[in-house]
């Protein structure tokens, strides 16, 4: 009995001193920090679905009196950086030391995770270079008409879904069906028909399997993003998502690729560009111009391998990131327009004038000309970025310029995008929805690195052009013939704690009315 008690005491003591040492990392370096709780550090309420991570980050961002503060995601130290020069240093000036996102990735158990958002180092550099030509403005122009057809389907579905008495609609679900249709069409040439057939769509159902988080799956994803040390342990026993979902996606993509290659079918979509990359080692960009930011390294990537599983992973992230993020942004644009009728009125006037200029046809050039639409989208992304933070992990010892703070190898640096974009220091009256912040005159007043909804530097969001285009076209499709208003059921409060992206906790219900001629100016 004495031996058992002694053993228990020794084990307890070892665990106690291990965590005590781990949770003293920031204090030992003189960094402002706060008491951590065993075993989850500062993110226990997030892991247990009690709070969204952005609520926790906001608490420490507001509480901190310094240019940075240190917290713990599980046992992993996380430095929240507030100084814009430090942010520039991490994202751009010293990018080679902060290239990776630090997300735990287990390719052996989940091949769908071997995609551009999660892979690291040379593998990321090579793939980024190879994929950049797939996202030029020229490629988007080729996809424009397909997106426009999906917009027509959205308007049809909107009319069908409106409550006959109130005009109420669950907006997030409706626009998610639109973005699934867009991404399925421009991604791999498949008509998902999510907006038709009484909403019976196998591809839409697959999308719900991907985004609806079951408790274990949600917990694993959270640890991968916000607790990689714990994730390394648990991923030995569990994997993200279901094997059935992964196999369904693999089979779907395999079948499409085999059919195209066998029957010599070519389409103007993302999948065709990947087939070109698989077969020829590159995507043709001879008719497109690449921005300097589009390419990490202008030298052609050597020893590039593009297996079928890597191929499918890129289709997966294009699909998942493309439909869910744009649907969230479009939902929030509609909410802010419903809340601000004068802004909605001005935007509709711009849409009407643009359509009139282009013979009542929606064109790519017409969408690009709509300055106020761009301002409304930018302000929506300021208040409601899809990702509330950026994380970069240090791979070489360095020092932050604002304070000469030493950053050890393996330290995670957090850039609190959500909080910086709502900081009164950079955006006066920060919680007010005001697209004028992004007018030609005012946008020059926004400090560099104070607005980062798509990140910055070589690892900025490669799909931002497509995301913005499909979001704008979805909004135009709705506002051409409808007005949007707050409903008695509209409720926007905190963010859902189950997700690593910033989703509203409740369904967003808005009311729609036909845009009749007396409302036109």
What would you note in describing this structure?
- The structure is a single chain.
- This protein is an alpha+beta fold.
- The chain has one domain: Cytochrome p450.
- Helices cover 49% and strands 7% of the residues.
- The protein is built from 19 helices and nine strands.
- A four-stranded mixed β-sheet has the order 1-2-7-4, sandwiched between helices. A three-stranded antiparallel β-sheet has the order 3-9-8. The chain has a two-stranded antiparallel sheet with strand order 5-6.
- Strand 1 (68-73) and strand 2 form a beta hairpin.
- Helix 12 crosses helix 14 and helix 13 (270-280) packs antiparallel against helix 14 (308-339).
- The termini are far apart.
Question: Which whole number gives the mean pLDDT?
Answer: 89
Spell the H/E element sequence: HHHHEEHHHEHHHHHHHHHHEEEEHHEE
CATH fold type: Cytochrome p450
Domain tally: 1
Label the overall shape.
globular
Major sheet size, sense and barrel closure = 4 strands, mixed
Q: Count of helical segments?
A: 19
Tell me the number of strands.
9
Helix content: 40-55%
Kindly provide the radius of gyration, computed on alpha-carbon positions and rounded to a whole number of angstroms: 24 Å
Strand content: 5-15%
Which consecutive residue ranges, at least 5 long each, have pLDDT under 50?
292-296, 517-521
């Amino acid at each position: 009995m004495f031996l058992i008690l002694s053993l228990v005491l020794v084990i307890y003591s070892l665990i106690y001193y291990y965590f005590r040492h781990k949770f003293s990392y920031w204090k030992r370096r003189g960094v402002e920090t706060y008491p951590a709780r065993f075993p989850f550090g500062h993110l226990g309420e997030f892991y247990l679905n009690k709070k969204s991570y952005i609520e926790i980050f906001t608490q420490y961002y507001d509480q901190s009196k310094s240019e940075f503060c240190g917290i713990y995601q599980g046992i992993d130290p996380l430095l929240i950086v507030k100084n814009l020069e430090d942010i520039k240093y991490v994202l751009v000036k010293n990018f080679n030391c902060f290239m990776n996102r630090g997300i735990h990735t287990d390719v052996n158990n989940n091949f769908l995770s071997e995609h551009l958002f999660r892979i690291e180092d040379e593998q990321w550099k090579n793939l980024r270079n190879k994929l950049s030509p797939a996202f030029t403005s020229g490629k988007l122009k080729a996809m424009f008409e397909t997106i426009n057809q999906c917009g027509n389907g959205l308007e049809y579905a909107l009319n069908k879904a409106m409550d006959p008495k109130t005009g109420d609609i669950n907006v997030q679900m409706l626009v998610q069906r639109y973005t699934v249709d867009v991404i399925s069409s421009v991604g791999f040439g498949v008509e998902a028909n999510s907006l038709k057939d009484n909403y019976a769509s196998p591809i839409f159902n697959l999308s719900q399997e991907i985004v609806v988080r079951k408790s274990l799956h949600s917990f694993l994803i959270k640890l991968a993003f916000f607790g990689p040390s714990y994730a390394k342990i648990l991923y030995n026993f569990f994997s993200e998502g279901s094997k059935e979902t992964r196999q369904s996606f693999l089979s779907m993509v395999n079948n499409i690729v085999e059919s195209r290659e066998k029957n010599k079918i070519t389409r103007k979509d993302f999948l065709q560009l990947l087939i070109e990359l698989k077969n020829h080692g590159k995507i043709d960009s001879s008719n497109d111009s690449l921005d300097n930011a589009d390419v990490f390294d202008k030298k052609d990537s050597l020893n590039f391998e593009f297996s079928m599983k890597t191929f499918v992973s890129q289709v997966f992230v294009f699909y998942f990131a493309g439909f869910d993020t744009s649907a969230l942004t479009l939902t929030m644009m509609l909410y802010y327009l419903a809340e601000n009728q004068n802004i909605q009125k001005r935007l509709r006037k711009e849409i009407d004038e643009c359509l009139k200029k282009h013979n009542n046809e929606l064109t790519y050039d017409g969408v690009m000309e709509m300055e106020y639409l761009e301002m409304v989208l930018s302000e929506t992304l300021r208040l409601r970025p899809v990702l509330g933070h950026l994380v970069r992990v240090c791979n070489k010892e360095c020092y932050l310029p604002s304070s000469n703070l030493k950053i050890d190898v393996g330290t995670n640096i957090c850039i609190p995008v959500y909080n910086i974009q709502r900081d009164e220091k950079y955006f006066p009256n920060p919680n007010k929805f005001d697209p004028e912040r992004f007018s030609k005159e005012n946008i020059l007043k926004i400090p560099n690195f104070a607005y980062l909804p798509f990140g910055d530097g070589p690892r900025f969001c490669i799909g931002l052009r497509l995301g913005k285009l499909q979001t704008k076209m979805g909004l135009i499709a709705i506002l051409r013939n409808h007005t949007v208003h707050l409903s008695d059921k509209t409720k926007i409060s905190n963010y859902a704690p189950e997700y690593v992206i910033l989703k509203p906790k409740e369904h967003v219900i808005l009311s729609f009315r036909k845009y009749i001629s007396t409302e036109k100016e």
